[in-house]
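Backbone-to-sequence.
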């Protein structure tokens, strides 16, 4: 694996209920945290958080260095709080968590079977688009670091 690709890991959080994407993020108490490196799942962790403490929830996602949160419905205030922390929200998702992760990795999360009824396609970038942007940013930082070091 090239050194620069090491930094292209994507961290995703998904609220879950009975192994499905939870319908409403604001009331979720269990989350699956996934680390992706390109098209490979490098790590997976389940954790419980109190939905009564939005600050703790946001702190935990920031501590995990979450890049993307895939969820069902979400309140505008929580979406804004996540955005201020640099977490992209892909909302109105549904389905079994493993299938949703796979669909995200394959760029197929906009398929009707993964969307809540009545919702439109996601506005957040797909895995390929995000990885490409993140990789370009990482390569740029990588290049600048070595230029400054005189290499």
């Amino acid at each position: 694996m090239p050194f620069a690709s090491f930094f292209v890991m994507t961290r995703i959080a998904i609220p879950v209920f009975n192994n499905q994407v939870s319908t409403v993020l604001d009331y979720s108490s269990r989350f699956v945290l996934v680390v992706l490196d390109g098209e490979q799942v490098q790590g997976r962790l389940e954790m419980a958080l109190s939905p009564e403490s939005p600050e703790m929830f946001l702190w935990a996602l920031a501590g995990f260095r979450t890049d993307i949160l895939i969820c069902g419905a979400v309140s505008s205030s929580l979406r804004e709080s996540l955005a201020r922390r640099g977490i992209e929200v892909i909302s109105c998702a549904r389905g079994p968590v493993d299938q949703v992760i796979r669909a995200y990795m394959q760029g197929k999360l906009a398929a009707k079977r993964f969307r809540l009824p009545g919702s439109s396609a996601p506005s957040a970038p797909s895995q390929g688009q995000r990885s490409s942007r993140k990789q370009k940013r990482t390569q740029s930082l990588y290049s600048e670091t070595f230029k400054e070091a005189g290499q």
